[in-house]
Write a structure and sequence with these properties.
Blueprint lengths: L14 H4 L2 H11 L4 E7 L4 E6 H16 L8 E5 L4 H12 L3 E4 L6 H11 L3 E6 H11 L7 E6 L2 H5 L6 E3 H4 L17 E8 L5 E7 H14 L7 E4 L6 H14 L2 E4 L6 H8 L3 E4 L1 H17 L2 H21 L12 H14 L7 E4 L6 H9 L4 E6 L6 E4 L12 E2 L4 E4 L4 E5 L6 E2 L3 H7 L6 E9 L5 E6 L4 E2 L5 E2 L1 H8 L5 E7 L6 E7 L1 H11 L5 H4 L3 H14 L9 E6 L19 H7 L1 H9 L2
Helix pairs in contact: 2-3, 2-4, 3-4, 5-6, 9-10, 13-14, 13-15, 18-20
Length: 609
């Protein structure tokens, strides 16, 4: 393992200079007009294209002129629903420079949920990826009267004619040939910059209101604890609608002058890692888990000797990491590292491009066995913790103070303390303004003196490191970082009379599943569809029965976000009762008890998919 020095950023733009997010962009353009800002794959030309900061500024001018011609007022909301690309940045910077409020939406979200967010935000404009997305959104968009303009990023002019909607226009027809001089909006740093929708306990998303200063101060805090150098190259693949990517993977590199390359897709991530050869990567645990599973699969198929060698490399490498962190003494086995590095560690790191010197993980907890392998092989994974409501980073580990079991110390400027039931309370310039048009929900989590209740329970050690110990609310956090309130989905599913009892699971997993107890009628319906005997014990093992139940569930939860999808079902033949200790006396689910009782079946369910 190579000990990486802590570099000092040489061209960091402080918040006092930038003042606003669009001010940060303009200052970066002024300082490095000829440096490469972004790299993106041009599908039509089949090659990677570079965009300098000067190129970006010229493009932003065109977008800003087009937006100005729509006659929007300062504070109007404009939404973006496209994949990560330089045009996402152009759109946002143009909008922010005019004092507009940006509403990012997940490109894979269900049309119904996206439309609800657009309606709730009162968005005046929507930028869509292509005609396929328009086809999916058209019916829902037809009901959104406040939506005055819909711009399609990739569309031919002739395609627009067939939409039958006068609001729709192709980007190439919307952008002017030349930019008009548009003076900066002189935004107040504390003005609303973005509304980001996140799942709430009501079943509908809540719009988190973040100011320029919220995001900018958090990006600056990130840059003070995780060094990003002007020569660094980041590979961006988490959606920019995800606050973690927006702050840490977009604004922090801009603040430090680094370059961002946009991955073509998660499916092509392995190939893009080898092409781009990034030095820094930001991800949710799921990506690291997939790489880890790939390594374990290859080991299982290999020889006994290769497995022994790999395990030795991990043991020695992790011990060296603990020694470098000054938590243990020197050991003679470290003399083996040059050989183990050449035979094992270097080969793994080369498959990730060969230049990564630090990676960040956030959005959900990373399994200890996964972080141990990567750290041992020479790739420091720095776990952090945050929420959309905190812009989002609250705390993170540092290269020279990395305790993988924790999520590190607070970023500069952020205060934390423990409240009732050890709830983690957070205060600082990164804490949201509140929830959009939802003062009741805001008051429930944000005190009058500015302390935000995270809803997570925590432990803070004597050195100030935070360890998340649980959640006050029943919120499932998947390995992709999505937060889903199971009770709301369970209530929706139970509206169909074939279901008697439902418990959704998926904590730390890549997708949701459901434990289902059918009603008497439900078993009859399923037996009829399967053309089988009404025997719950037999039907519970029937694959076709699972398909039927999944279809029924999908209908009931169609109004939830796209990531809140049930992929597998475990049918339970015996009801949960107070007597078998699966229910409380008030007939509430004993979630932990139920999960433990069916843990073997749950593990098999996930292992088989």
């Amino acid at each position: 393992m190579t000990a990486h020095p802590v570099f000092l950023a040489t061209d960091m733009i402080p918040p006092e200079t930038a003042r606003t997010l669009d001010g940060l962009f303009r200052e970066r353009v002024r300082r490095l007009p000829d440096a490469v800002a972004y790299r993106d794959y041009d599908v039509s030309q089949e090659h990677w294209q570079n965009y300098t900061w000067g190129d970006m500024a010229n493009a932003v001018g065109l977008w800003q002129t087009a937006l100005s011609r729509e006659n929007f007022s300062r504070g109007d909301r404009v939404a973006v629903m496209v994949r990560n690309c330089p045009q996402w940045v152009m759109f946002e910077q143009a909008a922010l420079g005019l004092g507009l409020v940006v509403v990012p939406l997940y490109i894979e979200d269900r049309a119904e949920n996206a439309a609800w967010c657009l309606d709730n935000a009162g968005a005046s404009l929507l930028l869509l990826e292509n005609m396929t997305r328009w086809s999916e959104m058209s019916e829902a968009a037809a009901q959104l009267q406040q939506l005055k303009r819909i711009v399609i990023l990739h569309a031919a002019s002739e395609d627009i004619h067939y939409t039958g909607d006068k609001r729709v226009i192709a980007l190439q027809d919307w952008l002017p040939e030349t930019a008009e001089t548009t003076p900066p909006a002189q935004n107040d740093p504390h003005a609303l910059a973005s509304i980001i929708y996140t799942s709430g306990t009501t079943g509908r998303p809540k719009g988190v209101m973040l100011s320029h200063h919220n995001i900018l101060s958090n990006a600056y805090g990130c840059a003070q604890i995780v060094t990003v150098r002007p020569e660094d190259l980041l590979l961006s693949f988490l959606p920019l609608s995800h606050t973690f990517e927006r702050t840490a993977g977009y604004y922090t590199p801009m603040l430090c002058g680094a370059t961002i390359a946009y991955a073509r897709s998660v499916r092509q991530l392995q190939e893009d890692l080898l092409i781009i050869r990034p030095t820094i990567m930001i991800s949710v645990p799921r990506i690291y888990e997939k790489i880890y599973v790939g390594i374990q699969t290859r080991l299982a198929e290999g020889s006994v000797l290769s497995r022994l060698l790999f395990n030795l490399a991990v043991d020695v490498g992790y011990s060296r990491f603990e020694y470098q962190q000054k938590r243990t003494g020197w050991h003679a086995s470290y003399l083996l590292w040059p050989l183990l590095n050449r035979l094992v560690a270097r080969k793994v790191m080369d498959k990730l491009g060969g230049r990564l010197w630090q990676v960040m993980s956030g959005g959900a907890a990373l399994a200890p066995e996964v972080s141990r392998v990567f750290i041992a092989l020479g790739l420091p994974i720095l776990q952090g913790y945050g929420l959309t409501e905190t812009s989002p980073v609250v705390c993170a580990n540092r290269l020279d103070d990395n305790l993988p079991a924790s999520v590190g110390k607070p970023v500069p400027g952020v205060e934390v303390k423990l409240g009732e039931q050890n709830a983690l309370l957070i205060k600082g310039p990164n804490v949201m303004l509140g929830y959009w048009n939802n003062p009741e929900a805001t008051r429930a989590v944000l005190s009058a003196d500015g302390w935000f209740n995270s809803g997570d329970t925590a432990h803070i050690d004597t050195q100030g490191r935070i360890t998340i110990t649980g959640r006050l609310k029943d919120i499932i956090v998947t390995s992709t970082g999505e937060k889903i309130p199971p009770a709301d989905m369970e209530a929706a599913i139970l509206r169909d009379s074939i279901f008697d009892q439902v418990m959704i699971i998926g904590e730390g997993r890549s997708y949701l599943s459901a434990l289902i107890v059918l009603s008497k009628r439900g078993w009859e319906v399923v037996a009829t569809h399967c053309n089988a005997k009404n025997d719950p014990h037999a039907l519970a093992c029937d694959e076709y029965a699972e398909e039927i139940v999944l279809e029924k569930i999908a209908r009931q939860i169609s109004g939830f976000p796209g990531y809140a999808k049930i992929h597998r079902v475990l049918l339970i033949s015996d009801p949960w009762t107070v007597e078998n200790e699966m229910l409380t006396p008030t007939l509430k689910l004993k979630r932990k008890k139920i999960y433990e009782h069916y843990q073997d079946s749950i593990n098999k369910l996930y292992a088989s998919h």
